[in-house]
Amino acid sequence: MGEAEEKLQPSGPLLPEVHDRAGSPLRSRDFLFFWIAGAVDGLGTCASSLFLPLILLGAGYSAGLAGLVASVALVSGLVVSPVAGVFADRWPRKPMMYTAALVAAGAMGSVFVAVALGHVVLIHVLVAAAVEQAASAAYGAAASGTIRRLVPPEGYSRAIGYLQARDQAVQIVGPTLGGVLYQLSRWVPLLADAVSFLLVALLSRAIRTDLTPEREGPAAPFTRELAEGLRFVCAEPFLRFVVVWTAGINALLGALYFHAVFASHARGADPASIGLVLTLAGVGGLLGALAAPWLVRRVPAARIVTAASWLMVPTAAGLAFASRTWAYGLLLGGVSLIVPSVAVVLQTRAVLVTPDRLLARMGTVLGTAGQGVAVLAPVAAGVLVAAYGGRAVALGCAGAFAGLALYATSRAGLVVREAP
Q: For residues 363-390, b (16+ Cβ closer than 10 Å) or e, as one string?
């Protein structure tokens, strides 16, 4: 960690006393707690979500019903997220964060008890998974408004880079951790997830900074405030660009990942080799996230966005001609290495151009747009690989990346105008 391992500075009741403005955001007690809470949450979720379908299969339910649980849970999070964004811009965000974590802990704790007792009922698991995803969406909506309060403006890019590095590390470590826990007993990952949400609640409760959103007069009707967040994103040319770029990248990366999995399986690769593909992609994303703050401080923002967008084109095209599993992994790792720098640039400027009272709604609009499109990626990749073959799908993705790069090049001026 380097700077993060140094002794935390004394903290007081006022935000300026917490920050070391010249150093790492991880020296801020409150940001460190927020960072750790996200890491614990991610590890717990990885430990349980990947193996919940196996628990249902072991209880005698079909693969279709197990998949239905995962799909319903995902959709519930997408539906709740914009609604939660309105409340996160109305209510104190810190209580909303730890309350949502406690609700999620209760939901997963009930599933742990059921599995431990050997009474797995589909409808119970379905409801609990949906509640857990909805609570996680509420937590995420409230958390999207915290960066401005926990970090000074000059630290935004580094803080966002640390958050991305954390999430990438969780994606690498989480599945392995879940597998180890599942080997102990099938209920252990569920217990770990429930305990992780309890820790998230405690860490969120321990944040001292006031996270209450700024308000301008009394609250408007709910539907008006929901529409206000959407109108704000649509009215800001820069945020419209972020929506299009993020949704496109999420969809294409998802398609490439599953294309690599399906193509590797078709070539006879074993599960361990396919796991290597995703591990190398995760490592690339982690390295990219760690390097992103350094790169953002030294390279103009518009150049990062355009260059990264174009670099993804030949990398995606290379997947069309790869024949070895390790080659798939290296190429996907190359794409994952490129994306974080652009994400840091776009997220930093999105925070800077958005009023505090709209931060949560802005975050949920961008997140819902990106995740909603990404949901279709696995299905689309499977259908297209089966119909046209892996090479055609990879070349199609490369062409789509080229279109996205042209769009980014034509809108590069927006990034310059919105720079801090």
A: bbbbbbbbbebbbebeebbbebbeeeeb
**pTM score, whole prediction:** 0.84
Rounded Cα gap, residues 72 and 52, in angstroms: 13
Going residue by residue through the chain, which has 420 residues, state the pLDDT in tens, using 9 for 90 and above. 333 333 333 333 333 333 334 468 988 999 999 999 999 999 998 878 777 888 888 889 887 788 788 878 888 999 999 999 999 999 999 999 999 999 999 999 999 999 999 999 999 999 999 999 999 999 999 998 889 899 998 899 999 999 999 999 998 888 788 888 888 998 999 999 999 999 999 999 999 999 999 877 677 888 999 899 999 999 999 999 999 999 999 888 888 877 777 777 777 777 667 777 778 888 999 999 999 989 988 999 999 999 999 999 998 899 888 877 788 888 888 888 999 999 999 999 999 999 989 999 999 999 888 887 777 776 677 777 778 877 888 899 999 999 999 999 999 888 875 544
* DSSP characters over 18-82: H--TTS-GGGSHHHHHHHHHHHHHHHHHHHHHTTHHHHHHHTT--HHHHHHHHHHHHHHHHHHHH
Q: Fill in the amino acid letter for 229.
A: G
